Amino acid sequence: MAGETQVSEVQVQPKSSGRQKLETWLNRSMKIKMSDGRTLIGVFLCTDRDGNVILGNCEEYIRGPESEDEEPRVLGLAMVPGHHILSIHVDQPAD
């Protein structure tokens, strides 16, 4: 029939608990320890199915952020390969 448009229904599936957790981490400060000894601190922007993480405003520490004699190297936007991640710490928001 002329002029008619067909509307299809889209089923929205509920979000998994893992996805909900990741969404709470968005735009939060995150510290990632890597297998080569480096520590990266930046803002969590996104991840992918392989566990790679994208950090914004990222700084790199060779000996760790606790070392007072080391200046961080500013990376800006950084992609952290998932297979090099040893641990992730997410700063909790102030209540």
Describe this structure in words.
The protein is mainly beta and 95 residues long. Helices cover 9% and strands 40% of the residues. The protein has one helix at residues 17-25; strands spanning 29-34, 39-47, 53-61, 73-80, 85-90. The chain has a 5-stranded antiparallel β-sheet, with no helix packed on it. The chain starts with 16 loop residues before the first helix and ends in a 5-residue tail after the last strand. The mean pLDDT is 87.
Itemize the secondary structure elements and their pairings.
Layout: H1 17-25, E1 29-34, E2 39-47, E3 53-61, E4 73-80, E5 85-90
Antiparallel strand pairs: 1-2, 1-5, 2-3, 3-4
Query: How many E-type strands?
Result: 5
**Helical amount among residues, as a percent range?**
under 10%
Instruction: Describe the main β-sheet briefly.
Output: 5 strands, antiparallel
Whole-number radius of gyration?
19 Å
Strand content: 35-45%
Beginning-to-end CA distance, first to last residue = 58 Å
So how many helices? 1
Shape: elongated
Structural class determined from secondary elements: mainly beta
- Enumerate the spans where pLDDT stays under 50 for 5 or more consecutive residues: none
One letter per element, helices H and strands E, the order comes to HEEEEE
